[in-house]
Amino acid sequence: MNPDTPLPQEEPGGQNPPDGAIIDYYLKADAKEVILEIINTKNEVVRRYSSSDKPYKLPELNIPLYWIRGQQLVSSAKGHHRFSWDMQHTPLEY
Q: What's the CA gap between 51 and 74, in Å, rounded?
């Protein structure tokens, strides 16, 4: 009856694919800052992510927190990393 409502955790379900485009990157050593820029065919920046970005704060909600997709942050630690871009442009400032 409610197809747009997420299922409770207790409801069995399969593994979903990642939400968006997968970007793999490798750092030979720890970095001070890592910047991922998604550019279009005109070399314009569509989206920019940085390892110095801070997690956003969630407002008071009356829904379970597991319904909300967690924020993904860019890592600057050495090694292999995987980042999933949600294929959205940079949000507008309010």
A: 5
pLDDT tens digits, 9-58: 666 667 777 788 999 999 999 999 999 999 999 999 999 999 999 988 88
pTM (predicted TM-score): 0.73
The distance of Cα 71 from the centroid of its chain, to the nearest Å, equals: 5
**Structure tokens given for 4:** 């747009």
In sequence order, what are the beta bridge partners of 84? 22
Dihedral angle sign, alpha carbons of residues 19, 21, 73, 44: negative
**Closest by Cα among 55, 36, 56, 54 to 46:** 36
